């Protein structure tokens, strides 16, 4: 009996080690892809570097191609963003850009959503911890856009959310399920306050 217990304990330990190793490797790969995006879209590039990167991109196509990067320092988040399309449900793989969004370089609302919870794709698991006046950054096409959160509220989880619609200023809206308020989603809204080339 003692031997069976030891074997079960060893197998349990091995499963835990394998799980956490997998999660670590996956997270490191995502960090690498985020850093590659920032490096590849850096504002300062010479023509030779651009040409070699184009050749590399043609031979090494990735299943998930980030269009931009989201950074929220207050919750230690820096992850890639992917467009949601009719043929690609991006929320299963990354932080998703709503197809009605306006990118940060034009007036409108940049709308993002992701899972919360405990899965490996729960990129917004700590979004509820973001506070008013916290900074949010989006890296897009060689420019780092800064937003300041000015509104935070819950809505019922119905599959639809009313968001700010404008063509006069630039906003960001972040949406995820509120794990501490079942049946609701938390919505954060920020206004663009600055932009710098990176």
What does this structure look like?
By secondary structure, the protein is of the alpha+beta class. The protein has a single domain, classed as Beta Barrel (Sortase, Chain: A), CATH 2.40.260.10. Helices cover 26% and strands 32% of the residues. The protein has an eight-stranded mixed barrel with strand order 1-2-3-4-7-8-6-5.
Helix-strand category: alpha+beta
Q: Can you give the helix content as a percent range?
A: 25-40%
CATH superfamily: Sortase
Q: What is the residue-mean pLDDT, rounded to a whole number?
A: 83
> What is the total number of structural domains?
1
Main beta sheet: strand number and arrangement? 8 strands, mixed, barrel
User: Per the principal axes of the C-alpha atoms, what is the gross shape?
Assistant: globular
Question: What is the helix tally?
Answer: 2
List keywords for this structure.
198 residues; alpha+beta; Sortase, Chain: A; 8-stranded mixed β-barrel; 2 helices; 26% helix; 32% strand
Give a brief description:
The protein is an alpha+beta fold. It contains 2 helices and 8 strands.
What topology emerges from the helices and strands here?
Elements: H1 2-40, H2 47-59, E1 68-72, E2 77-83, E3 95-97, E4 108-113, E5 135-140, E6 143-156, E7 170-177, E8 184-197
Parallel strand pairs: 2-3, 4-7
Antiparallel strand pairs: 1-2, 1-5, 3-4, 5-6, 6-8, 7-8
């Amino acid at each position: 009996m003692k031997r069976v217990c030891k074997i079960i304990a060893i197998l349990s330990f091995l499963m835990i080690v394998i799980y956490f190793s997998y999660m670590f490797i996956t997270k490191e790969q995502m960090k690498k892809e985020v850093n590659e995006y920032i490096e590849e879209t850096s504002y300062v590039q010479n023509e030779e570097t651009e040409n070699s990167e184009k050749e590399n991109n043609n031979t090494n196509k990735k299943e998930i191609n980030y269009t931009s990067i989201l950074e929220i320092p207050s919750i230690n988040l820096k992850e890639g963003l992917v467009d949601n399309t009719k043929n690609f449900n991006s929320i299963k793989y990354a932080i998703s850009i709503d197809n009605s969004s306006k990118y940060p370089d034009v007036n409108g609302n940049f709308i993002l959503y992701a899972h919360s919870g405990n899965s490996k794709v729960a990129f917004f698991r700590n979004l509820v911890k973001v506070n008013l006046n916290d900074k949010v950054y989006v890296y897009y096409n060689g420019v780092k856009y800064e937003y300041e959160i000015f509104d935070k509220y819950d809505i019922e989880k119905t599959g639809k959310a009313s968001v700010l619609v404008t063509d006069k200023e630039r906003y960001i809206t972040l949406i995820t399920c509120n794990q501490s308020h079942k049946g609701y989603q938390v919505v954060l809204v920020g206004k663009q306050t600055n932009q710098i080339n990176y």
